[in-house]
Amino acid sequence: MNLKTCKDMLKKIFLSACIAATLACQASPRVNLDDTGDASGLKPDIQQSIVTKNLVALLEKYHYKKVPLNDSLSGVILDRFIKSLDQNKNYFLASDIKDFNQYRTTLDDDLKDGDLTSLFRIFNVFQQRYTGRINYSISQLNKPFTFNSGTYSYNREDLPWLASQAASDSLWTSRVEYDLLNLRLANTDKGTNKNIPIGTKSPDATDTKASSDETKNIQTLKKRYENLLAQSKKINNQDAFQIMMDAFTESIDPHTNYFVPVRAQEFNEEMARTFEGIGARLQLDNEVVKIAEIIPGGPAFKAKTIQANDRIIGVAQGKDGEFEDVIGWRLDNVVSKIKGPKGTTVRLKVIPAGQELTSSPKIISLVRDKIVLQDQSAKKTIKTVNSDGKTYRIGVITIPGFYADWKAAQAGDPNYKSTTRDVKLLLDTLKQQKVDAVLVDLRQNGGGSLPEAISLTGLFIPKGPVVQTRDTRNAVEVDEDEDPSITWNGPLGVMVDRFSASASEIFAGAIQDYGRGLIIGTQTYGKGSVQSAVNMNRVLSATDKLMLLAARKDPKNKNMVVGSDDAPYGQINFTTAKFYRINGSSTQHKGVMPDIQFPMIFPADKFGESSEPSAMPWDTIQSSTFTPYANLSGVIPSLESMHEKRMKASPEYQYLLDDISEFNKREKETSVTLNQSQLKKEREEQDEKTLARDNARRKLKGLPPLKKGEARPKNDIDFVEDESLNVMADFIKASANNQLTNKPAQKF
């Protein structure tokens, strides 16, 4: 993750492009709202009520932590729910928060009863504030701005709630000015808006051309705000319910989550790395669904009749089904119409990219198929390293997640997809290509399937324990690799970072405990808990289901969402156990500490398990009985010494330290100037500094320099990987010189 991405994560401006509104009228005795109406809005349905009661009962009985749902937890849930809606304190007023405090000790009882009235009321007040702010933003666009003074506070998380309507108006007026200023500067860089003098008021520029440029900026921003307003109107009670259940479950434990039906389907497809459909990624663009990407190998790719940026305006099922006009629909609703079982037909009305929406659409017929997400699967490359006059070939295997298509496996599909199966094929190929070592890249791998972490470890060790799990009864189970064969017995390294979590930590911890390979990078995330996925269809009683079946027939419940047959009532993933390394140590909070370390950009108190207030503590249990593969303690100090020597001599190391310094500086910033000249100067200086550094790095790599404004190719420079390859070259030499102890006969 680069510095910009991390900075964006830190800011977390909730719905940040959504701007200001005037709030005036009285909606209830307690909350003032704007003239769009009262806070009634969305309402819970009977299915959500029944699901909530069952969730509460399930978690109280089976969750690992056994946290009682009482008045104390009620307050935590309330605070988390409010924060999830308005983390940056941009929308709610202090008077709203004072009003919501009436629920501080009652939400526990409400949830037990399946009563979501209070939470929906809070959500609806937020919706009113939210849409009101957008309307206010639009009303401010034609007012003059000086662009020569003031600041915009983009990070208000640690500030008090807005005290009054006037304070809210002031904040969002500055946000509108900032958005316009951004457009001015961005378009100036592109060669447009060059006629608008620095500091010129908006929209009364000094000449006709300048006025025209500013008018375009205003229209662009107005369109953006109107699009946000349109999207906010599509929010339904399932969206609200998802946020409410997140606030509830994550107050118990950060890794316990309920998924409404559509999210459950998405989660399971992500785990399987497969889905059934046409093989296209879609996005919403001004009320119209646009094809963002065609996935290689899928029906859309093979048909060659639709392309990226084509727009879908109608969907029909089968060869004869009626078309439904999908303009203005929610994206997930359109996706649900296009996806479907393998072998079935879907027809699309498509407006080709570049043509007006009023053009005659093409009718495209596609037969759905199973889509394998190869770009989210394990992949390999071979890198060469020159060291001491010798060239080493190192196979780098990048694993983005621990996935498995259990549904296909249970159906007897011999080619079902999983991390271990994919990596084994890659290792077999790398052996044929005669690599000298393998480096597994688990950076930004957030985990996934526990069984896959165990079986993947088994590709590199003889049979033996991999991880221990302790359940709610304090019973400890040792999970073992029972296959004595080893797919790769050569030198092994594992790259990790602060975002390597859960299953990644199980794998890295086992490799380290066995002395099977080097762990290289930074301290990992520190997630040491195990989640079980339970379909709520298994939890609801027959009486509950009959009640819901009857409720669906009632016209009053016509908007009640019923999920697919797989998860009609959603899915709960909740913590049922804690895992421990075979040495007895939990990875909770502490994670895995690498053998060869790099400076950590991301502070532990901001990123990782340590940043979660509801996280479980670190502890230990008894070690498992296992036989180390090798003892690396004798070789690691020399590898560290060579690593540190290279680091200190490398310009890239200094760049990394600069990044850390810049990150810490940006983390403390909470506002930005609205002075156009000053902001332009700051950005130009930063751009010049970045370009100079990028070109210095490219020169060292023998790459051509970039010109001003030219985008840097993605991942063309990866210092951590480059240095990790150097470490692996040292490791290969140490192995060849038999510097490894404990099992001298087990040479790499």
TrEMBL record:
One of its GO terms (cellular component) is outer membrane-bounded periplasmic space. SUPFAM superfamilies: ClpP/crotonase, PDZ domain-like. Residues 1-27 form the signal peptide. Residues 359-599 form the Tail specific protease domain. Keywords: Hydrolase, Protease, Serine protease, Signal. Residues 204-214, 679-697 have a biased composition (Basic and acidic residues). Pfam families: DUF3340, PDZ, Peptidase_S41, TSP_NTD. Residues 276-354 form the PDZ domain. GO terms for biological process: proteolysis; signal transduction. GO terms for molecular function: endopeptidase activity; serine-type peptidase activity. Residues 194-214, 668-715 are annotated as: Disordered. Belongs to the peptidase S41A family. This is Tail-specific protease. It comes from Hufsiella arboris.
